[in-house]
Write a structure and sequence with these properties.
Elements: H1 13-25, H2 31-41, H3 46-50, H4 52-55, H5 66-82, H6 87-96, H7 112-117, H8 135-158, H9 161-176, E1 196-208, E2 211-223, E3 228-233, E4 238-239, E5 248-252, E6 254-258, E7 270-278, E8 283-291, E9 299-305, E10 316-321, E11 330-335, H10 339-342, E12 360-365, E13 374-380
Parallel strand pairs: 1-10
Antiparallel strand pairs: 1-2, 2-8, 3-7, 4-9, 5-8, 6-7, 9-13, 10-12, 11-13
Length: 383
């Protein structure tokens, strides 16, 4: 029996934070995932001792090989980094743990300081104009691992065998697509597609009764041509009747300008204008919110229609906060399906099913999202 075959203690957030900081500074050609694999495979090694608080809980993965346990743990870390709300903290953690893709698709540098330097050209995130030193990144690094460690410590305690499964795919996607868009090609977009490629889209939906009261969307995009100065949105969620127009407001790094209807009954489009005009290949981050005042309506899904040049693998995350008085009976994710398929509940045990638990549901789409397709999370209400 190895020290990984039996775990009788629960790691504190401080222990997890210490392990994270050690992992970020560890130089390895294979990246953090490879170091995690070494720690699992060689219990007497230095990585095993430094990372015990992280790797020990993966013993609950049923019949888990070294590789699957490493991928599951790496996927959990990547998923939690992706859900970090503070943009500075999130990008600092992405660089610290070498989460692909790196800026410019050139690959992450070996040292922590060099990786922070790779964040300097990012527009807006660390200042406008961007900083000339890594002081903002180092400042974010003081507190970002602590908040990440708190969330990881809670997950490491609660995850059981089946709970680890979804993170294996996330971990594989974050290793096998090292160069982001260059390594994964979306299908061709239509002529009318918005000229942007989305590296990351985080949607947080707050439910009231059985409707989506608030839908906050954060987008990290790359301009696909010169002259991109905004993004068009109309936030219509799926429900039992016709889609409803939702008023959209700008929350950060953009301003909302309503566009006139093309014809009666058409959705009201809102133009989220950026703070400047982007050149081809330039990155930009902005946040918007949609509010729904029809609180008596019953929504059956939250949908994302890809009307641009696609979303990077692992780049789309949807998280829902259900009303505790109105929890759905079942919840599942769908991708590239007809509407009739989206509303059809998968059978018991299907990987598309999502645990409702206490009402917090999140799913990250590990595969890339193609233009002209729909992706989302559907739910069935109790009678």
């Amino acid at each position: 029996m190895t020290i990984w075959e039996h775990v009788d203690e629960v790691a504190s957030a401080a222990e997890v934070e210490a392990a994270l900081r050690w992992l970020a500074k560890r130089a390895s050609g294979g990246g953090p995932r490879a170091v995690l694999g070494e720690a699992i495979n060689e219990p007497a090694s230095e990585p095993a001792k430094a990372l015990r608080s992280l790797v020990a809980p993966t013993v609950s993965l049923p019949a888990g090989s070294v590789g699957s346990r490493a991928f599951a743990l790496w996927g959990l870390i990547v998923d939690e980094i992706g859900s970090t709300g503070d943009a500075r903290h999130r990008h600092t953690l992405i660089a610290a743990f070498r989460v692909p893709p790196s800026p410019g698709g050139t690959g992450w540098k070996a040292t922590l300081g060099a990786r922070f330097e790779q964040l300097l050209p990012l527009p807006v995130v660390f200042g406008d104009p961007p900083p000339t030193t890594t002081t903002p990144m180092n400042k974010a690094w003081r507190s970002a691992p602590r908040a990440l460690a708190v969330r990881l410590a809670e997950k490491l305690v609660s995850l059981d065998g089946p709970g680890w499964q979804r993170y294996i795919d996330i971990g594989r996607a974050a290793v096998e697509v090292p160069d982001g868009r260059d390594a994964w090609r979306a299908r061709p977009a239509s002529n009318g597609a918005q000229p942007v490629f989305v590296e990351r889209m985080l949607i947080t939906a707050v439910m009231h009764r059985r409707t989506v009261r608030r839908r906050i969307t954060e987008r990290d995009i790359i301009a696909c041509e010169d002259g991109v100065d905004g993004f068009d949105v109309h936030s219509a969620t799926g429900w039992t009747y016709d889609p409803a127009d939702l008023p959209v407001t700008a929350l950060w790094a953009c301003r909302a300008v309503a566009s006139p209807r093309e014809h009666p009954g058409a959705p009201v489009m809102t133009r989220l204008r950026f703070r400047g005009t982007l050149r081809k290949g330039e990155r930009y981050t902005f946040v918007s919110e949609a509010l729904d005042g029809q609180l008596e309506e019953e929504r059956r899904w939250l949908n994302v229609e890809v009307d641009h040049h696609g979303i990077a693998p692992g780049g789309l995350t949807i998280q829902l906060n259900f009303d505790p008085e109105h929890l759905p009976e079942a919840c599942w994710w769908y991708a590239e399906q007809f509407e009739v398929e989206q509303t059809r509940q998968p059978p018991d045990g299907a990987p598309h099913l999502l645990p409702v638990g206490d009402g917090f549901v999140r799913h990250t789409f590990v595969e890339g999202c193609h233009p002209r397709e729909n992706y989302g999370v559907a739910f069935r209400w109790k009678s």
